[in-house]
User: Fold Menaquinol:cytochrome c reductase iron-sulfur subunit from Halobacillus locisalis.
Amino acid sequence: MSDKKRVSRRQFLNYTLTGVGGFMAAGMLAPMVRFAIDPVLQTQEGGDLKSVVSVDEITNEPQRFEWTINQVDAWYESEIQKTAWVYRNDNDEIIALSPICTHLGCTVDWASNEEYPNQFFCPCHAGRYTKDGVNVPGTPPTAPLPMFEHEVRDGMLYLGDAKSRKGA
Ligand code: FES
Assistant:
């Protein structure tokens, strides 16, 4: 008589079902795991500088420029519109200021109030900033307007993230 072990019908069915079940479970779980860790696998665009305007267009008077960036927030990707007040100061340096009021986040305008023609003015609570974006003491904002990091390449102004500054 042979010593070979024979696989019973029950064992064969068990092995087959376990194998097929495991294969199907792996097939269903793999996309879920990939989806769960997807943001980790993505390269982030945050911090990139974007081309905004030709430097020839920048004057000594603050002008408002807009551009868009792609924002990836975990699984959600969207296009965000950004805005900056840009001008050349007396030393011919380019200054790019955020228009977001540091009091409660309204949008400031340049020279929009007749009484303060050379200042940024926030219409929400009459907040004011000097041309370099420093908050005027005695008005609601307690910090200067954030300043965009910038770079000039091939005659174009590139802007990055707006950085907060210490209060006046
Ligand atoms: S939000 Fe600008 S002064 Fe209040």
